[in-house]
Specification:
Elements: H1 3-18, H2 23-30, H3 39-46, H4 50-82, E1 87-88, E2 91-92, H5 101-109
Antiparallel strand pairs: 1-2
Helix pairs in contact: 1-5, 2-4, 4-5
């Protein structure tokens, strides 16, 4: 496997790993958001059951995943329409090699394996 493909797969797998949790959702599950500006949120969280906090945290995590997907989808659009490229460590990443940035992200989140090279 060439270096660019390896770096692309590592980048995508890193995004998938990152998408499995976020600090905001973890705070909601714990029932305590940090920071001085979180007083109202913490008051609301203190009135929710653990199950309700988990529902809210799951919703927030889904929005976080949507944000990653939307960003990748826009980058894919830029790649296709504006001829944008992405490089890491001086290597251009083969972002069009598989299904495209956003679809590779969703596929990997759902357990899709990288094709054998």
């Amino acid at each position: 496997m060439d270096k660019g493909t390896k770096l692309y797969q590592e980048m995508m797998d890193g995004l998938v790993k990152m998408s499995r949790s976020c600090a905001g959702a973890s705070n909601l599950r714990r029932g305590k958001a940090p920071g001085d500006s979180s007083e109202q949120l913490n008051l609301v969280l203190s009135q929710l059951s653990e199950e309700q906090r988990n529902v809210l945290a799951d919703y927030l995590l889904a929005a976080y995943v949507d944000g990653i997907y939307d960003t990748l989808d826009h980058l894919e659009w830029l790649r296709c329409v504006k001829n944008m490229s992405i490089s890491l460590e001086g290597e251009e990443l083969p972002v069009g090699k598989y299904e495209g940035l956003s679809h590779d992200f969703i596929g990997r989140r759902q357990g899709w394996e990288w094709p054998c090279e």
